[in-house]
């Protein structure tokens, strides 16, 4: 492929989109060329989805110009967009589980005969599409029987079956395993060869660096810059995306941890058959101990065992004393807190108020004689936390489910702060949280450490682990591969240990 | 001034929460008094309250259980066992106080068995209480081989027949239990934990709530409430009947659900349940006064429950 301007298939110039008073996009630009993968990079809320919805014909631009193959492009509906040669694969699954793969792929376009669907032709046509993409999927299988990852591949096949010139892939790998992602990457390579232009949206930086030809960064609804892949680094892209440099994202430690202090929590040879083996580590007051590992490396399982949710052999010491929590209430009584991984499942009671959620783990502190709740004290404490963590909510009585992800996460943290933990476990504390809230959560974690809380920070986000931790335990297949600190704390060494490729 | 606005706000909240269901109750009363002028009298209203007492008290216990996201189908059987335990205590020559104590204890134990099987063996409460519904119902007949047992203790029978300060004792019992349950639910950490656990069990466990213990205690509350219902029923009938309280669990569930208790857990109040029980009582009483055949009553009752719940769901959706 030659990178000349005549290759341009899709061109977006000065596009603006306002919803009432709010401008979602301002002066957006994008130029996508045939046979190239163009990644659109931006944090949640940067305007990616608004732009994609304009291209898909869901929204109409308020002003600006879009051309497809030199012609003015203003699709009235997603069907219209598809007929003009633009296909979009959304991250949310839109398949019918009780229909077969073939029926789903060719939905509304089934081959007919005398007005009835021609099943044989349907299956044959779907088989051709699937084989063409190299997907290992039986088209006569019901979608409901497929794994989530396979469904994602069917979704992609459905999107690509339209013979599109431009294909938009919105976080297509979010539920794919590595090997399934490889299938997708092969499909992308084949599409490129055919001269199809691909707009790719993803948050996985490694994947972006591997697939992209061009990368456009957007922030706060505005165009920032476009780069050829060879010209940029991950760090530079992140800095462009969030508008601050890396060292500004992760607030610095207030003071160094005293090395001679006795550990607050120490874990020795913790083992649970089939989940993790011989996990040992210790953490001191004021220290942030990072836990990195790939999905399935047993990090969350270890934390659940420490917190009394699972049985395990081995020893857990709190301030030198051996403890064995049989349930979370025993752990909480000894001032161990656990910000769990899935805030909607294990963290919050979504239907109940902000106040109830914040006071939940420390309810005993607000209970007076005869079990009566001291409402004044409860309200004052909840209100103080809302102010302290700048949780944005209409009132303390608002259901927690009505808040944004970042504010929900802060409620979960507030809940644990009220228990005044000596050890606080944070499992993926910034997952699905926007950059602003992320930064505030990092500040809270730093503040807690400065006050002497021992912190276990579990994260799949490598920059986060590097930016926040004093030391990092790298887990690999249920065992701690290494504990790294100081000059050893580099992305390369961490990844080497996490994948088991260390020398 | 602020006191005044606060009361106003509370009133608006109450209207929003119970407006729909309260309206259904008022409409039913208007319809019945239109057909029968004797319906809207103080005497008849007292009558309704007494008739509804057995259901209402069982429904208070049921509200706790449903709030937790569980169900207790053994309530009707526990009502019958309670009457029989009382009758047997007197047959053995016991006095009133030990008889009451043993009856309540029996209710607590039966509830505890439901709770332990549900919480510790991780069996669904629906299945557990379908089973114990049969077991407890069968146990009623053990002492008498299926025959009813007379109760001649005058204190016991006075509960269902005498008045205190101008009000039937039954109504006092309902009132006291309503207040106690309402306060326990809305003002204590025990009640709060029930709401939180019903709303999200997983989150409750991780936040240190002893969910198993809570569950067992709540099934015990349901058992004790049903036992009190059984005492009232047997005192009105002067006897323990083996088929007493048959299918009352369904009326108790209907009362709680009519009152806005969510079968999914986490939502519900005693005020709502009391109104729900009154709706069921008004329907039974009104249709009896009109001599509506029993099978028609069943059909009408079912339809009214469907319509009332639908109205309530609609009103709550409109709020969003």
Automatic annotation (TrEMBL), chain A:
Membrane topology: Peripheral membrane protein
Residue intervals of the ABC transporter domain: 10-245, 254-502
Keyword Cell membrane: yes
Main localization (coarse): membrane
Keywords, alphabetical: ATP-binding, Cell membrane, Membrane, Nucleotide-binding, Repeat, Sugar transport, Translocase, Transport
Domain of life: Bacteria
A single Gene Ontology CC term: plasma membrane
InterPro entries: AAA+_ATPase (IPR003593), ABC_carbohydrate_import_ATPase (IPR050107), ABC_transporter-like_ATP-bd (IPR003439), ABC_transporter-like_CS (IPR017871), P-loop_NTPase (IPR027417)
SUPFAM superfamilies: P-loop containing nucleoside triphosphate hydrolases
GO MF term set: ATP binding; ATP hydrolysis activity
Compartment annotation: Cell membrane
SMART domains per the UniProt record, alphabetical: AAA (SM00382)
Family assignment from sequence similarity: Belongs to the ABC transporter superfamily.
Designated name of the protein: D-xylose ABC transporter ATP-binding protein
Originating species: Sinorhizobium medicae
UniProtKB/TrEMBL annotation, chain B:
Assigned EC number: 3.6.3.17
GO annotation, cellular component aspect: plasma membrane
GO-annotated molecular function: hydrolase activity; transmembrane transporter activity
Entry keyword Ribonucleoprotein: no
Topological type in the membrane: Multi-pass membrane protein
InterPro entries noted in UniProt: ABC_transp_permease (IPR001851)
CDD domains (alphabetical): TM_PBP1_transp_AraH_like (cd06579)
Transmembrane segment boundaries: 18-36, 48-67, 79-109, 121-144, 164-185, 216-233, 253-282, 294-311
Keyword annotations of the record: Cell membrane, Hydrolase, Membrane, Plasmid, Transmembrane, Transmembrane helix
Pfam annotation, one family: BPD_transp_2
Compartments, record wording: Cell membrane
Keyword Hydrolase in annotation: yes
The organism's place on the tree of life at top rank: Bacteria
PANTHER family tied to this protein: ABC TRANSPORTER PERMEASE PROTEIN YPHD-RELATED-RELATED (PTHR32196), RIBOSE IMPORT PERMEASE PROTEIN RBSC (PTHR32196:SF72)
Protein name, as recorded: Monosaccharide-transporting ATPase
Organism annotation: Sinorhizobium medicae (strain WSM419)
